[in-house]
Amino acid sequence: MKKYTLGFVLSIILTLAAYFAVVDKFLSGFNLTLLIVALALVQLCVQLYFFLHLDAEEGPRWNLSALLATAGMILILVAGSIIIMNNLKYRHNVPDTKTILENEAITK
Amino acid sequence: MHPEHNSGKYIFGFWVYLMTDLIMFAALFAAFAALRISTFGGPTMKEIFDLPQIMIETLILLMSSFTCGLAMLAVFRGKKKLSFLWFGVTFILGLAFLILELSEFRHLINDGQSWTRSAFLSSYFALVGTHGLHIAVGLLWILVGLYQIKTRGLTPFISSKLVRFSLFWHFLDIVWIFIFTFVYLMGVAT
Predict the structure, then answer these.
(1) CB under 8 Å to A63, separation ≥6 — which residues?
(2) Which of A14, A42, A78 should one mutate to test binding to chain B, selecting the residue with the greatest count of B CBs within 10 A?
(3) Three-class DSSP category at A19
(4) Chain B residue with Cα closest to A30
(5) Which comes out higher in pLDDT, residue B4 or A56?
(6) N- to C-terminal Cα distance for chain A?
(7) Which residue in B26, B33, A39 sits closest to A31, CA to CA?
(8) Considering only the top CATH level, what class is B9-189?
(9) What is the pLDDT of residues B95-152, one digit of tens each?
(10) Disulfide: which of B53, B98, B143, B173 matches B65 by Cβ 3.0-4.6 Å?
(11) What ipTM does this complex have?
């Protein structure tokens, strides 16, 4: 009961912090993005600990292992897609090959 | 089996399902990240996201995750009526979330901003809609759970099913935190 209540209160605080950081514009641009992503990651840890009781697992920790393996796959999937798609967009938007050559510092 | 443990071979299979579900959500997140600025002359994120309503949805879902936890505590202590009550509250909160989300979707579609409008809206509806579909399935699951608590009581078999439901529900809450951050907050912030 105590654990759930604490997890709930922490989640509410983290959610409200992220919301008001955006609405009241405490920061801007990259710093704001960094702040709300950090708050989301903290909240992920809070919920895994307080709601999903990841710490209560005994013996070989299969649940935790599966979660970490999944986190790796998600990282590759999401980061890889974003990098590839941005690169593709960049190459499609450039008006001519000369600009690409200049940007990439390629000399003939 | 003691139902209080979220580990063990009784849970691991379901846990692996949740992990694969996460990978599916990750693919939808990746698609959204790649397409979020491809508005094709249609509305941008800033124009269509109603942040206060999204905040209310988030708080409702967070609260339902909490009441689901309280329901599980009642299950572990063998308190049938109390668990029934908290699962009922969880159901009502989940339903409120779903109704708010659907009203948001209906509002967008009535304004001619459905998934056919732009690549951004397609990826938005796919991601948020998939989460909403999971919530709808979860609501159905609560109804079945409530019926089984009523007719069969908190036997170890039923309790073990309820443990899996609670994992599912908490997971949906975590996925929503990421939708809230990466779709709504970042959509308005940048």
Answers:
(1) A54, A57, B6, B7, B11, B12, B15
(2) A78
(3) helix
(4) B190
(5) A56
(6) 69
(7) A39
(8) mainly alpha
(9) 999 999 999 999 999 999 999 999 999 999 999 999 999 999 999 999 999 999 999 9
(10) B173
(11) 0.88
C-alpha of B179 from chain center: 10
Residue A96: predicted pLDDT: 65
**How far, in whole angstroms, is CA A26 from its chain's centroid?**
20
Over the stretch B49-108, which tens digit does the pLDDT of each residue have? 999 999 999 999 999 999 999 999 999 999 999 999 999 999 999 999 999 999 999 999
Phi, psi of B103 (to 5 degrees): -65, -35
CA distances (Å), A27 to each of B40, B54, B183, in order? Answer: 29, 21, 18
**Cβ–Cβ below 8 Å for A70 and B186:** no
The domains of chain B are located at: 9-189
Q: Let me know: does A81 contact B33? Beta carbons within 8 Å.
A: yes
Containing B167, the helix (H) or strand (E) segment is: helix B156-179
From the list B87, B58, B52, the residue with the least C-alpha distance to B162 is B87
Q: Which residue is listed with tokens 């995750």?
A: B65
Is the confidence at residue B172, as pLDDT, over 60? yes
Q: Name the residue type at position B63.
A: M
Residue B36 and residue B187 in contact, taking contact as beta carbons nearer than 8 Å: yes
Nearest to B167 among A33, A52, A58 (CB): A52
pLDDT, tens digit, 9 for 90 and up, residues B143-162: 999 999 999 999 988 999 99
Give the minimum alpha-carbon distance from B43 to chain A in angstroms, rounded to a whole number.
20
